[in-house]
Amino acid sequence: MIRYTLRRFLLFLFTLWLLTIVTFSLGFLFPEFKHSDPTVGSYLAYLSAILHGDWGVSMSTGQDVTEQLWIHLGATIELSFLAMLLSLVVAIPLGILAAMNQRSMFDRWVVSAAMTGYSIPVFWLAQLLILLFAVHYDWFAITGQITPLYDIPTRTGAVLVDVMLSDSANASLAFWDAVNHMVLPVIVLAMMPLTMLIRIMRDATLDVLDKNYIKAARARGLSELKLMRRHALPNAMQPLIRQLGLQFSVLMTNALLTEVIFNRLGIGSWLVKSIYERDYPVLQSGLLVFASFILLINLLVELYHAWRYPQVRQELYAEY
Amino acid sequence: MYLLDIRNLSIEMTSPKGKRVKILDKVNLRVHAGEIHSVVGESGSGKSLLAKAILGFINPRWTVTADRLWWNGKDLLSLTPKQRRQVSGRDMAMIFQNPNSYLDPNSTVGEQLAEAIPAGDVRGTFLRRRVDRRTRVKRLLHRVGVRDHEGIMESYPFELSEGIAQKVSIAMAVAHRPKLLIADEPTTAMESSTRGQIYKLLARLSYLQDMSVLLITQDIGSIIPESQHVTMLYCGQLMESGPKDAILNNPRHPYTDSMIRMSMQRLDDLPHKSRLPTLPGSIPTLEHMPIGCRLGPRCPKARKECVQVPRVSKHEQHSFHCHFPLAEDDS
């Protein structure tokens, strides 16, 4: 496992290094922006600046990029983690139940609903939900993270954390207001991975339930509940966990859209804004951080997968 | 009294073309307590099906009929599926051909063995139970001849060799001290030295725990030397059944005879370029089962009468289903 971790980590560092080359080239590839020269010397200067935390100054606001970066990243991490959590919490039980009652009415409904959900574009779904729940029923807020009245200072960017850190008198009201702002974006964002994960979980459970060790355990008289908990579920989770990194990348791409639609603070809306404003230092560092974050999540998922399912480690080396 | 007493067990299924086919046709099987009984049959003979029928794991679309399916004097066919599962879970156990696929790939051998130990066996208060369970697992591994218990308990199934994996699955099978262990071709893909070890282990466990073993194999040459009885199946029909020595030394059925000669013959005894002593033809498919004795078209001694199912002939414990049995050997 240590060898495996080291190998993965080195690969991660190498990919990061390639990323810095890409973002560095943004500095001279844009026609109207000649921030740096394509020389080794200026690349090394750029690299050392990044490593020292000096990410430049925004061309539109004149603020320090580094500070802004963490706040926006924090907001995106909060949103995407909540969305991922929601999709996991819903998808795993639904997938298992559908597989256990294969070909039943329930199973058919789940599968077709997942297929439909998968086919709906995120931006369209977002607007439908806004029309229904925000405009028609007026249940949820549709723009921003929190009503500005509460005056919560932004520290981490993650608004729920900020509320908890603040010593505002109306902290609990502010908290629920933030949650209210968050419901629609989280649902929209969770939709895509949710539908994928349901199908993955259902197929994996069906596959595992047909395995010999499940039949043998059942023949040994193990109760159905123990069978599911000890053997079926952990093994069915394996393909799901393997897919999780990939699903997270898709989710991050959608987070970019969702943040713009709901006008939320976040690295996605920040990037889109910087594109409109030709704010190259922001664009450069935003891309770098966005990509590194996805890479980091992928690395962590892969490490967890290999740690939890030792068989995988063997497959990566030679068969013996 | 027999531990397992099966009379005229038939299993009928509908073939893909809609025909009713008997995949098991009036099979008898009797197993004494503590004996090792070998069931020999080629692929498609229904030997694994017989095992499943005993355990009660038969596809619900197939019809199972039997004059008698008694377990320890109790009629298994009169039980509900749930009671049936209880009985087979408590008193029977089974091991299989690919032991590795019967072990959960993602939990350690130690965990799986601990799970196989009946909860009633573990003594002590909450904290002591863990320790007790562990010693029981250790003892179980020693009993099946695994000396390196520490290493094996920490291992995952994919890290085990075939022989060790089979020993582990035997350990799991005997953890609740079953009265009958059904071994479905447990050594088919193994080296002969490993096979010897597994057979010795089965014989010893059978002797020590007073456990019957129903060993299912496809080659009469590789039946377990310690087995007392041998039953020959062909295409779902019973050919011959009896004490091992009588079957091996004095087979009365032409099928048994040819099987023995095929598997025991040393090839260098044959004259140069002569034909191998095999039966002509091949095993019929489900749709084209011959009527009467199913060996008929391939049998060297077949005559007109063989389109009728032969009645059983008995000679002490030795019984065979043939119109024209081989002569009894007096020597």
From TrEMBL, chain A:
GO terms of molecular function: dipeptide transmembrane transporter activity
Main location: membrane
GO cellular component term of the entry, any: plasma membrane
Domain of life: Bacteria
Database matches in Pfam families: BPD_transp_1
Entry keyword set: Cell inner membrane, Cell membrane, Membrane, Transmembrane, Transmembrane helix, Transport
Keyword hit for Lipid metabolism: no
Localization terms from the record: Cell inner membrane; Cell membrane
Membrane topology: Multi-pass membrane protein
Transmembrane segment boundaries: 9-30, 69-97, 109-135, 182-201, 244-262, 282-301
Domain ABC transmembrane type-1: 73-301
Record-linked InterPro entries: MetI-like (IPR000515), MetI-like_sf (IPR035906)
Membership in a protein family: Belongs to the binding-protein-dependent transport system permease family. OppBC subfamily.
PANTHER family hit by this protein: DIPEPTIDE TRANSPORT SYSTEM PERMEASE PROTEIN DPPB-RELATED (PTHR43163), PUTRESCINE EXPORT SYSTEM PERMEASE PROTEIN SAPB (PTHR43163:SF4)
Name of this protein: ABC transporter permease
Naturally occurring in which organism (per UniProt): Idiomarina tyrosinivorans
UniProtKB/TrEMBL annotation, chain B:
Membrane topology reported for the UniProt record: Peripheral membrane protein
SUPFAM superfamilies: P-loop containing nucleoside triphosphate hydrolases
UniProt key word Repeat: no
Classification via InterPro entries: AAA+_ATPase, ABC_Ni/Peptide_Import, ABC_transporter-like_ATP-bd, Oligopep_ABC_C, P-loop_NTPase
Main location (coarse class): membrane
The entry's keywords: ATP-binding, Cell inner membrane, Cell membrane, Membrane, Nucleotide-binding, Transport
Top-level taxon of origin: Bacteria
Cellular component aspect of the GO annotation: plasma membrane
Gene3D superfamilies hit by this protein: P-loop containing nucleotide triphosphate hydrolases (3.40.50.300)
Subcellular location: Cell inner membrane
PANTHER family linked to this entry: OLIGOPEPTIDE TRANSPORT ATP-BINDING PROTEIN APPD, PUTRESCINE EXPORT SYSTEM ATP-BINDING PROTEIN SAPD
Entry-linked NCBIfam families: oligo_HPY
UniProt name for this protein: Peptide ABC transporter ATP-binding protein
